[in-house]
Recover the amino acids of this structure.
């Protein structure tokens, strides 16, 4: 299997949105559920990526491609952009934002934030996730950042193990109340690793 890595393109938005949706494990569904008439949460996310408003843009994504098919992606940007923006305040209802307030207020200053990383299930355990990490680390260094950070659900033991194997350490626990659309019960953790 030959996998190539490149920056996302506008025509990749739907696939990137699908991968980010999987990576969010319910968070995107919670935030965008029934937000725009006749649009699913994935539709809303894809539309946002296509608008190319930094940092939530297809240009902020590295995609892994095999035989012309996108099989994985990593969305990342400087951590200072992981926050509640004026655009988010206009777009999301106050109660949805309040539910995620601690999440959006948690970051490692000066780091590069890995917002979402996902590999399609049939392509996992082939080194693609590790390669996406390596490409993201190079991207972070080229942008003058010497730490990579991310947020993961505390009870996602498999993902936490993967991150620890990639030298991430826990920085902070983040309160996130359970909800029927988010199948996690123990909040989140902010993690970082030195590059």
């Amino acid at each position: 299997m030959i996998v190539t890595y490149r920056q996302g393109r506008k025509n990749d938005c739907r696939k990137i949105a699908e991968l980010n949706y999987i990576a969010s494990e319910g968070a995107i569904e919670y935030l965008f559920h029934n937000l725009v008439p006749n649009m699913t949460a994935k539709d809303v996310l894809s539309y946002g990526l296509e608008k190319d408003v930094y940092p939530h843009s297809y240009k902020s994504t590295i995609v892994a491609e095999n035989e012309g098919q996108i099989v994985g992606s990593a969305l990342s940007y400087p951590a200072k952009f992981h926050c509640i923006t004026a655009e988010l305040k206009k777009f999301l209802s106050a109660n949805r934002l309040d539910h995620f307030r601690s999440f959006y207020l948690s970051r490692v200053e000066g780091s590069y934030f890995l917002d979402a990383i996902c590999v399609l299930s049939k392509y996992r355990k082939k080194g693609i996730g590790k390669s996406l990490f390596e490409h993201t680390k190079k991207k972070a260094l080229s942008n003058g950042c010497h730490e990579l950070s991310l947020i993961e659900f505390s009870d996602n033991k498999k993902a936490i193990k993967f991150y620890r194997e990639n030298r991430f350490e826990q920085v902070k626990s983040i309160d996130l109340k359970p909800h029927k659309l988010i199948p996690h019960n123990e909040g989140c953790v902010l993690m970082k690793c030195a590059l």
Observations:
- The beta strands are 3-7, 61-66, 69-78, 112-119, 147-153, 169-174, 188-194.
- The helical segments are 13-24, 27-32, 41-51, 86-91, 94-99, 101-104, 128-142, 157-165.
